[in-house]
User: Fold this.
Amino acid sequence: MPSVRAERPGAAALLGWLTDPDAPRLCLVTGAPGLLTWLAAHGPRAAGRHRTVRALVPLTGRTALGAAWAVADHLGVVAGSPDDLVRALATTDTGRAARTVLLLPALHTAAEPLAVARLLKDLAALGRVRVVAETLPGTPEHTLLAEGRVAVVDEDRPAETPQPAPLPPDLSDPRAVCTADPVAVTTGYVQDPADDHGGLRSAWLRAGQALCAARTPADRALGLLAVLGDRADPRLRPALEELAATAPWRVRWTRVAGDVAPPWPGPAAALAAQEGTLLVADLGGTVHLLAAADARPLGRLDHPVTGRVTSLAPAPDGTVLLLDERGRLHTVRGTKPRPPYLQRLTEAVSTTLSRHPGTALAAIAGSVVVGDRLGSVHAFGLTGLHQAALHSGRVTAVAAVESATPFVCSGGTDGTVRRWTPGRAPDPAPLAERPSPVVSLSATETPHGPVLAVAWADGTVRVHRPEQGAHLDFRPGPPVRSVAVTPDGALVVGLDEALVRLERDGG
Assistant:
């Protein structure tokens, strides 16, 4: 292969900038058409988990929102706006960002070049990523980015004729929206704030990051269904259901911010299923009770917790255990008489957590499972205490399954999900893993065997059937706060502005 220096002198300059630890985090490329695309195609050859990644994000036709969604996908975070992206990278410890070089060709052809330039400048200022933007000297966006400490690479070649941006489709037609170029759809909705297009615009802007990354029109239709409110044009839902017919999921029901019949229960900080009832803890600590089949409100859980509830753990006898944001245990008695030995067990766990706060909670018959900030999982049972060091860093979620051989699943900030049967050695390999922290777990025994749902901070939800070695993913778009698996195997996903129940095609 010819040397980089001989083939593209500008590439040699860029590589020199990349390998200089003291260089500015922002590099402007001028007079070098096609250089960033070329550089992305000739990415680093070094293999391994921590190699540098060159992420190409073409800017033609993109708004700042569309650019933020594309960059967030590359960096493994979820962002509802450009400000959300900057905030997420400033507050989230994601190793993926530190290993990423963003290559952004043709800033001058963006739908909002100046707004995109502001986003890129903010990203570079964080120091978490390296940013390379192709700009045209003399434009406002170039002037903005050239302020301060930047590197400049110029091959002094004539500019290429830019490719035209894709035209927006009919933004009120669900079929056109789901089959068109997602960049064009996003730009069309951003530039038309006065018309909600029957509710399609609100749904797209709520779930857009996942919709833009979706591979098929059916997946986009499914994503829109999951966040479509009850104020939407009633013709949209059947049209989207038809478009989503080949997707692997079916939306059974959804409750979105602003819904009134039935009402939206609020952000779902924690979820749990108890027979035919769904427990939904909002951000203020109230636990709403909904009918799992259709989300009808059934009242509230009478509990003494003040502040946010981080975990809900229904026990088989109807008792509900709650973990508050301080890591303390609370108990809400069910209607059935509770065996004295279970009462003594929960009192012992409560006493332990008053001294050593927990970070995650689960319960099955005769056992209470707790995670801690050091990566260990503790199973308190009638036969004693079993412990296992399962994670590197904080345990963020635990789930327990009452099956022929009861087992525990745990997730942590290390992004792994591990399976463990108390009293035995943990499984050596993770059950699942992503380069993003686990935010929620739920598991239950179903007529088809045990089912596990896991949500990561990058917005991915995965449903596992461990005994079959099968899994299925779903991305709703916004950050996922909580998940629950119902006894019949349905998946409930809790978001800040929506709650949705999905069922797998074919059961």
User: Anything to note?
Assistant: DSSP finds 14 helices and 28 strands in the chain. The two ends are 52 Å apart (CA to CA). The longest strand covers residues 438-446. Residues 401 and 462 are 17 Å apart (CA to CA).
